[in-house]
Amino acid sequence: MREFDFYIVPTPIGNLGDITLRAIEILKSVDIIACEDSRNTQKILNQYSIGTKCISYHKFNERERVNQFVSLIKEGKKVALVSDAGTPLFCDPGSILVKELKKEGISVTSLPGANAVVTFLSQIPRETEEFCFIGFLPKSEKQIVEILNNHKNIDTLFYESPNRLLDTLKIIKDVNTSAVVSVGRELTKVFEEVMTDNVINIINHFSNGEIKGELVVMVHSEKIENSVEEYSERIKQLKNKNFSDKDISVILSTLYGISKNEIYEYLISHK
Fold first, then answer.
1. Which of 138, 184, 219, 235 could make an S-S bridge to 120, C-beta 3.0–4.6 Å?
2. Contacts with 106 (C-beta within 8 Å, 6 or more apart), sequence order
């Protein structure tokens, strides 16, 4: 197996049994583990008898740690990066460090593993494979409304905190009272809860008690009847210019926010 200088290692998002054998092997073999909070990481290390030294690397010391890790690797040390849970660089520190390491010609690889978005999406029925991941929503209601309006035609996912969930759901309701929303809470843990319903019903459900745990939310795309047919003249014009079906799908999707799959299916059925 090829050796690298720097490893991006996913860790479980809840159930400690979800770590991979390779992740354990790498965490044992490297010289240093860069972690957000050593108290959280230590629980995993203790579980699997990993004694590797940890150095803190979080959003408040991200930039100042970069030179330290570059120097350590150039001295011959192997380093692994973990976040408190899930895959690093998904709403977690790491992008600044990885960018600098690659500038320095240092070899970087990532391991497959736990990720809340993938875990959530794999159990939510969807109309298409397309989706948009926002990360954490901005705090401004105006900015949230703008995001929702700009992403009406695609499934839109984001992370949310328990204390903000109801406020965010109410904003979604104000934008579209018929919105369909999926919420995943405490994924992989004992009290895992995943539900899909009208936003009003989701609000009622979570209004009944204290909300706990990490949350992933998806606002389902709005179904627009005959959306492709409305652009049949545009399609004819593009076909006359000898654009392929694939190119037409990309162009119309980019310009008008229609699903690429929907456009392509329309083109195939109207040959």
1. 184
2. 5, 6, 70, 73, 74
